[in-house]
C-alpha cells in the first residue's frame, strides 16, 4: 500500500503541544517513507560516527556502516581526522574492518594499500596498465566535522556546519564540559526490529519511567517531574529531575565539572541533536545511542558510555565505572522490550492515531522536525521555544 503522506503531514503540522498526536502507525514501517528519510534527512544531515578519543593516536581507524555504505574514520600520521569510504578503488572490496591502528589500510583482495589520509600508497603488478597513476585512485572522502568530541559525517556534503546547526545547544551543554568526557564502554545490541523513530520516541520522553522503569528510575526520577527544555530547529532538550530528598550520588550525578551549578547535580539532561545523536547526561556520565537505520522498522543499535574528567579522577573508579555500566545497560534493557512490542503492533496492522501527554512534548517537537525536513510542513518560521 502506498504511504499516506497526508496523515503524516497532519501530525507534523499540529501547531501546539496541547493538541499533539502520534505519528500514523504506518510511518514506522513504510519503505516509501524510509527512502525519503534517507534522501532528505540522513544524507542531508549530520550523522555521529564515533568519539575523537576512539582515534587516540595517529594511525587509528574506526569502521562503521551508514545507510549500507562502508565507511572508516581515520587519524592520519599528521593527526588529521578523515571519513573515507572503505570500498577499495580497484574492485570495491572493503579495505578494512573493525577498529585499531595501522600504518596503511591494505585491501585483502589484491593488496592495494592506502594511507590513513586515503591516498593510494601501493598497487602491485600495475606497471603494465597504460596510464595508471596512483594519484587517481584515492579512497573516496566524505565531508566530516567534529563537535564536542563527536566526529560527524554529512553524506551529501551540503549541510550547514554542525556547529551552526547545534549552536543554540552550546549554552546548555557547555557547563558539563562533555567534550572532555572519555568513553569507558562500548556496547552492541545488534539488529533490532524497530524503526529509528520508535527509538527516538522512547528516548525523548520520561513519561514511561512509570511503566518499564517503575522498578529502576521512577522513584528517584519520577515521570511527572520531567520537563521539556530549550528547543531549536535541529535539537530538542528535556530534563529528568530528581525527587526531593535524594543526594547527588555518583556515578550519575557527581562528581562533575566546576562550571556546573548545584542544581545540575539533581537532574539529567536528555537531548537529541537531529537526526540521530541521542544523549543522556549528568555531571558524572553521559551515554549516547548510536542508532544506525537499516530500513523501515530496522536499526543496528549501539550504546556507548562516557565518564566526566572529574568522575574519572575520583577515588574508587573501577567500582563506580562498573556500577555505571550495569545501571545504564539494565535500564536500557527495560526499553528494548517496549520498543519491540510497539513495532509488533505496527506490523499487526494497527491504524489508529494516539494522543500525547504534556510529558511527551519532545515528540511533538520531533514530528515538527520531520515535517520540516520532509518538506510536508511548509512554514518553518514558527518554531516553539522553551516550555
Ligand atoms: S579489490 Fe582491493 S586490491 Fe583488488
Ligand atoms: Fe527508557
From TrEMBL:
<protein>
    <submittedName>
        <fullName>Aromatic ring-hydroxylating dioxygenase subunit alpha</fullName>
    </submittedName>
</protein>
<feature type="domain" description="Rieske">
    <location>
        <begin position="46"/>
        <end position="153"/>
    </location>
</feature>
<keyword id="KW-0479">Metal-binding</keyword>
<dbReference type="InterPro" id="IPR015879">
    <property type="entry name" value="Ring_hydroxy_dOase_asu_C_dom"/>
</dbReference>
<dbReference type="InterPro" id="IPR017941">
    <property type="entry name" value="Rieske_2Fe-2S"/>
</dbReference>
<dbReference type="GO" id="GO:0051213">
    <property type="term" value="F:dioxygenase activity"/>
</dbReference>
<keyword id="KW-0408">Iron</keyword>
<dbReference type="Pfam" id="PF00848">
    <property type="entry name" value="Ring_hydroxyl_A"/>
</dbReference>
<keyword id="KW-0560">Oxidoreductase</keyword>
<keyword id="KW-0223">Dioxygenase</keyword>
<dbReference type="InterPro" id="IPR001663">
    <property type="entry name" value="Rng_hydr_dOase-A"/>
</dbReference>
<dbReference type="InterPro" id="IPR036922">
    <property type="entry name" value="Rieske_2Fe-2S_sf"/>
</dbReference>
<keyword id="KW-0411">Iron-sulfur</keyword>
<keyword id="KW-0001">2Fe-2S</keyword>
<dbReference type="Pfam" id="PF00355">
    <property type="entry name" value="Rieske"/>
</dbReference>
Amino acid at each position: 500500500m502506498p504511504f499516506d503522506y497526508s496523515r503524516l503531514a497532519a501530525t507534523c503540522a499540529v501547531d501546539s503541544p496541547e493538541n499533539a498526536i502520534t505519528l500514523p502507525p504506518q510511518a514506522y514501517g513504510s519503505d516509501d517513507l524510509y527512502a525519503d528519510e534517507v534522501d532528505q534527512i540522513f544524507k542531508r544531515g549530520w550523522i555521529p560516527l564515533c568519539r575523537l578519543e576512539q582515534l587516540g593516536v595517529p594511525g587509528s581507524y574506526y569502521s562503521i556502516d551508514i545507510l549500507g555504505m562502508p565507511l572508516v574514520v581515520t587519524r592520519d600520521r599528521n593527526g588529521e581526522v578523515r571519513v573515507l569510504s572503505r570500498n577499495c578503488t580497484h574492485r570495491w572490496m572493503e579495505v578494512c574492518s573493525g577498529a585499531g591502528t595501522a600504518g596503511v589500510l591494505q585491501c585483502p583482495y589484491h593488496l592495494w594499500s592506502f594511507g590513513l589520509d586515503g591516498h593510494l600508497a601501493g598497487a602491485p603488478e600495475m606497471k603494465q596498465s597504460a596510464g595508471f597513476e596512483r594519484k587517481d585512485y584515492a579512497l573516496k572522502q566524505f565531508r566530516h566535522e567534529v563537535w564536542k568530541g563527536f566526529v560527524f559525517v554529512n553524506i551529501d556534503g551540503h549541510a550547514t556546519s554542525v556547529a551552526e546547526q547545534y549552536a543554540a545547544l552550546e549554552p546548555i551543554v557547555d557547563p558539563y564540559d562533555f567534550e572532555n568526557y572519555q568513553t569507558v564502554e562500548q556496547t552492541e545490541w545488534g539488529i533490532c526490529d524497530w524503526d529509528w523513530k520508535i527509538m527516538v520516541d522512547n528516548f525523548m520522553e520520561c513519561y514511561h519511567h512509570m511503566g518499564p522503569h517503575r522498578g529502576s528510575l521512577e522513584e528517584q526520577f519520577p515521570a511527572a517531574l520531567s520537563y521539556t527544555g530549550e528547543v531549536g530547529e535541529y535539537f530538542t532538550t528535556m530534563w529528568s529531575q530528581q525527587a526531593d530528598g535524594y543526594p547527588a550520588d555518583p556515578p550519575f550525578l557527581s562528581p562533575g565539572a566546576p562550571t556546573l551549578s548545584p542544581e545540575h547535580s539533581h537532574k539529567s539532561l536528555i537531548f537529541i541533536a537531529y537526526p540521530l545523536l541521542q544523549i543522556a547526561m549528568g555531571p558524572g556520565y553521559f551515554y549516547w545511542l548510536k542508532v544506525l537505520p537499516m530500513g523501515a522498522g530496522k536499526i543496528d543499535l549501539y550504546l556507548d558510555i562516557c565518564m566526566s574528567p572529574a568522575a574519572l579522577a575520583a577515588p574508587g573508579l573501577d567500582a563506580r565505572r562498573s556500577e555505571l555500566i550495569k545501571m545504564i545497560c539494565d535500564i536500557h534493557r527495560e526499553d528494548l522490550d517496549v520498543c519491540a512490542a510497539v513495532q509488533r503492533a505496527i506490523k499487526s496492522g494497527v491504524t489508529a492515531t494516539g494522543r500525547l501527554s504534556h510529558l511527551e512534548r519532545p515528540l511533538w517537537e520531533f514530528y515538527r522536525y520531520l515535517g520540516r525536513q520532509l518538506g510536508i510542513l511548509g512554514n518553518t518560521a514558527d518554531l516553539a521555544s522553551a516550555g
